[in-house]
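Entry 14. Two folds queued back to back today. First construct below, sequence then structure tokens.
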Amino acid sequence: MIHMIAIVFLCIVLAGCSSNSPFLKDIFLLSTSYANPPITPLPLPLPSSSNTTYFKDSVTASKSNLVIRTGYYGLCISTSNSNGDFTCNSNIASLTAGLPSTSDPLNLIGQSQSFKDKVVFPYLIVIGLVAALFVIALLATFPGWHEETNDNGSEVEVKPFPSHPVVNVAYYTSQAATFLIFASAVWQHASAVAFSIALQNASAGLVKSEVGTSAMVLVWFGFGLLALVTIGLYILILSIKLLKDITDDDDDDDGRPGTAVSRRETLRSRTRARSPRPHDDGDE
């Protein structure tokens, strides 16, 4: 169950800005727009070289209401004519069709596309998701509760431990998936923050950018849930090893092999058999 929640969170992060769904429009890695007014003052006087054209265009661009949101597999664009509504697509040509060139003089759409294609790397999350699905398939093979007859002839509900090799494979696979998602979360966070700061500084304060909080929270929550499952599997391995050592010691003391059907019930029955009985004063 925990694995399924983590997989859903990570799939939402990957699908952010890839369609016009109202929910997915708010899942983005980076948002860029033109600052109006500029965040930092422009240098005055303006240079007389070719940079003059750049600064003049930048001043014009600072009046633009263009906002671009970037996801792993798509972009969302909002203009002054869309009344704050975002149009999302994975194809940049479809997004820029009919868009006036004056609305994006600094080519923020191209910068966002470069960030999506050359900076972020979604395949670590994809591989981690495949590993998490494999762990779910292994967890489905674990035995559940069933009734057995104990030494006294009464039926009891027992839950045998799963096969030790299966638990080991599930643990190491879950550990690999957790590491991949952790690396992806760090990469996503660091790259978005670094790109945001670099873009603002390079544009002399004419560009405003922010890191997507929703995508950041979802990917870190996904990592935390996977780590929780990995810790649980590690505790299960230790429990199986400890119980096996206890039953093996009891088998050596009794001089006969132990039953492998239900080690937990065997341990309980032997514990009850070895517990001291109260003395009856009348018998003495």
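Second construct, same run, same settings:
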Amino acid sequence: MIIGRLLQGLSAAVVWVVGLALLVDTVGPAQMGQMIGYVSISLSLAIFLAPNLGGVVFFKGGYYAVYYMSFGMIVLDIILRTLLVEKKVAKNWTVNEEPAGVDIPIPDHSHIHGSTILDLDLHSAPRPLRRHPIVTLLSSDRLWSALWCTLVHSILLSAWDAILPLHVAKLFNFSSLGAGLMFLPFALPAVLSPLVGKYIDTHGTRVPAVVGLLSCIPPLVLLRLVNHSGIRQIVLLCALLSILGLTLVVSMLPFFVEVTNVVTTMEKIHPGVFGERGAFAQAYGLYNCAYAVGILIGPLWGGLIVGKAGWGTVCWSLALLSGVSAVPAALWTGGWIFDKNATEAGGAGLPETAVEAGSKEVGRVDNKHEQS
């Protein structure tokens, strides 16, 4: 079983990272917030449906029926991936479909400053020191902040897996189905993810990141009040889980987009620093590592603390973790907050300093040729 779970985690990590890389390659960094919002909907639905669907199939069809269902979904996934056409391949098809006999005009730059375009001194621009993409990415404080907040988010999300079913079974005598349904109000706010993502694409990542983490504190603290049986307690629990689910949606999307923005900004400031293929896959691999570590810590956090100090301590400790994590989110998300020259440029998160540096570099090349 342990080997099987290791292989399952390995395959899931590969599929997740490749899928995110395909997503950014298809839609571009400027629309990643809204697009990852749609991905968040499917992820939340899967997290909610999988345990309940597995339980029903196990109850009706037995142990092996669950694996038959899984094998069928794997076959369907393989078929869809085989039919997938990458954007770069589709572009080649579009180019090849140009009607014959149509001449595409090529601008003549040979008159510029009495020389050909090949005479431009392209070596005047500084070349970045080529290092492994992961080493270059980990040199960014902004990325470290995003990875830390991603880890915290996954802890806040997964801590309930180990304690919520046991807590509701103890207080309300819920069956396994009833305990599973308690995750429904937790997952439903994910339908608002595209709206949150669209806001991030338009206004940047810092405000949603800080607001999301700070907004997690009230529902986490108030969950301590769910400590006895009764209909009112069930309603209170569902309402607080819904609010917490919404705040987690707001706090998740900015950090995923932030990882994308870090790669985009580095590439804009130092073109070619990641090579021809870029570093989105490596960045999403780091993101996935941080998320996976949080998924590992979350149930341990919840289970150990609830066994030693009780339900209430779990709630306020998670609230404290969320509040503390809002500090690095405020300082580094979207760029160092005290850098007056660094402001987010739309969804790309490109600091103005990078744009100015690029403009000055182009100006130096032009002036050099004017003097010649």
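Quick look at the second one. Residues 231-269 form the longest helix (39 residues). The chain has 15 helices and no strands.
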